[in-house]
């Protein structure tokens, strides 16, 4: 057990070192070359090659990023300062910050922001806790451990559409399986799609179902890199399994946990597919009282259903700014945690 | 030697990367006007080559099912037809709008739903060919033609089907509830007013068979009633009048009577649970525009065979229906116009009716209409042709507006749904819809 863990840990560390060494080596090589006298054509080409090739290799990503992310992003910003209708894209009238002011005074926007936060919390927190627990269990010696791990990943491999359709049927208020089970416990049928908390819970459960296994595998990978002697010495000190988990596993996993928190937060802010499909025919409204209309849905509703592209662009940029704030808060927290260590 | 091999390898890698990048970019560039790839070998070769006409539709139009594409291709050896189907209208229409304005990427023929036709007429008319010059306009029902015609008389789309209204009901459930099952007597009971239909519902609920409701949803009653109203959300001159419109008020009241009286199965139309409702027979009636016939037959399956019947609706009304337009950005306008003319001609509309009961918008087809034998037995030998034709001829001219669809969904998916499913009062539902519509209109 312990040897296998260490064996797993080693390649990881050497792989980490690898990308760092090569550019340094290249620099050294160039330095040794020095200011050689009259450069031949070949060596000039060679040097040019050394300098340019890395850029050529990374260029495809940046070209595509520029074409499909940066330009649309800036164009969206431009749109958000105009009054633009989907039916008249070439008639843009300057609106200044009107779209943003409009948003700040719109109940629907604040409602969507609140929903995004609350759905984000009730989906991310249980999901990460469950993932941690599952990873801990999978870290024990198990019969058919590979099979268990593959099963963990299946929900993630399922398409959002397929998963949501099944959940919609499970949660349908008349004849759905969830209400049928609840009925045995004497609970009255819940109208999952229209009730306030019920609908948010239902949407969250789809997110939790899809992403728990994915996060569990990330945790598992990190757990396997924890040196076994830490556990051994903890055991010698008389720590039981739970104490080992709390005082060895969790502190060692801190960077990984932070990473998953950041990634899940970004995912939660952009939540779109699950509530849209869960809502069925008019899903972009997120329920008759917008109970589960997230920012993503509100943007879609404004832009593509109502046709108000200027306002939709303003929502898109607001989402972007919110994500920047979230990232900043995460950065601060990370620094704090590093210092405290 | 070794170094040179290395170098050439590197160069090759570089070249490969460069080629990949340009290839990708070129791929993207091609993507935006994929119409151009269609005419390869078209007019280029000098002789008459094969032309691919593309037709963009949503949902099920029934042309493929009725074999019309094959028939047309047999008649025109040099043409092949490709249908691009987008299932949902709310996805289809924004896509068409952006492509129309970009001036590229549109299909040669583009279908337009009745809820979008006013927006197309008022904002996109110059992007469509005037089809009025190409056909005998008197073939179409006046109100249908008027919907697709601009103020200066350009017709941007030819009518396909319409949605004249009837009531489809489960004879077996009616019998169990101790109600009249004869279609003419039922039609007479609720004739003229949707409130009378609601009264029948109240009677049904007194002895309703276990687990069944009278109607699928309050929204469907609303839409059916509104389809027969003189004014909807806009007046003749294009002003928004939704909150003073008598038609909206009356339809709202009928829907409220349903929503507050436990006679609704509280389903949302076109949702999966609604389909299940058909299969399990959990509601006894559904407002039944002609296109609903095919839907019921498909979703109710064998269990519903012979149990369904069709009666005339309280008022003549229209719900749904589409148009075919030819964008000026298309590559093969002449051929596309010919195809549209042929597809919307009375004979072809009759063929689609025979396959899938989509009702023609050309009255001259009515005399020869024959529903499929299966459909007739499925609906207890009801004279559906007669019922729909009678309704079609008395439908009032309605004026639609640019934001008709979002306003409608604010009333049904917010206002009515809150009353029906969340137990809000009709006043609260109305206020919620009002807020929503303010948002839609940007007020």
From TrEMBL, chain A:
<keyword id="KW-1133">Transmembrane helix</keyword>
<comment type="similarity">
    <text>Belongs to the binding-protein-dependent transport system permease family.</text>
</comment>
<keyword id="KW-1003">Cell membrane</keyword>
<protein>
    <submittedName>
        <fullName>Lactose transport system permease protein LacF</fullName>
    </submittedName>
</protein>
<feature type="transmembrane region" description="Helical">
    <location>
        <begin position="117"/>
        <end position="138"/>
    </location>
</feature>
<feature type="compositionally biased region" description="Low complexity">
    <location>
        <begin position="7"/>
        <end position="28"/>
    </location>
</feature>
<feature type="transmembrane region" description="Helical">
    <location>
        <begin position="314"/>
        <end position="333"/>
    </location>
</feature>
<feature type="region of interest" description="Disordered">
    <location>
        <begin position="1"/>
        <end position="39"/>
    </location>
</feature>
<feature type="domain" description="ABC transmembrane type-1">
    <location>
        <begin position="113"/>
        <end position="333"/>
    </location>
</feature>
<dbReference type="InterPro" id="IPR000515">
    <property type="entry name" value="MetI-like"/>
</dbReference>
<feature type="transmembrane region" description="Helical">
    <location>
        <begin position="256"/>
        <end position="273"/>
    </location>
</feature>
<feature type="transmembrane region" description="Helical">
    <location>
        <begin position="201"/>
        <end position="222"/>
    </location>
</feature>
<feature type="transmembrane region" description="Helical">
    <location>
        <begin position="150"/>
        <end position="173"/>
    </location>
</feature>
<dbReference type="Pfam" id="PF00528">
    <property type="entry name" value="BPD_transp_1"/>
</dbReference>
<dbReference type="InterPro" id="IPR035906">
    <property type="entry name" value="MetI-like_sf"/>
</dbReference>
<feature type="transmembrane region" description="Helical">
    <location>
        <begin position="52"/>
        <end position="75"/>
    </location>
</feature>
<dbReference type="InterPro" id="IPR051393">
    <property type="entry name" value="ABC_transporter_permease"/>
</dbReference>
<keyword id="KW-0472">Membrane</keyword>
<keyword id="KW-0812">Transmembrane</keyword>
<keyword id="KW-0813">Transport</keyword>
Automatic annotation (TrEMBL), chain B:
<feature type="compositionally biased region" description="Basic and acidic residues">
    <location>
        <begin position="433"/>
        <end position="443"/>
    </location>
</feature>
<dbReference type="InterPro" id="IPR006059">
    <property type="entry name" value="SBP"/>
</dbReference>
<feature type="signal peptide">
    <location>
        <begin position="1"/>
        <end position="26"/>
    </location>
</feature>
<dbReference type="Pfam" id="PF13416">
    <property type="entry name" value="SBP_bac_8"/>
</dbReference>
<feature type="region of interest" description="Disordered">
    <location>
        <begin position="422"/>
        <end position="443"/>
    </location>
</feature>
<dbReference type="InterPro" id="IPR050490">
    <property type="entry name" value="Bact_solute-bd_prot1"/>
</dbReference>
<keyword id="KW-0732">Signal</keyword>
<protein>
    <submittedName>
        <fullName>Arabinose-binding protein</fullName>
    </submittedName>
</protein>
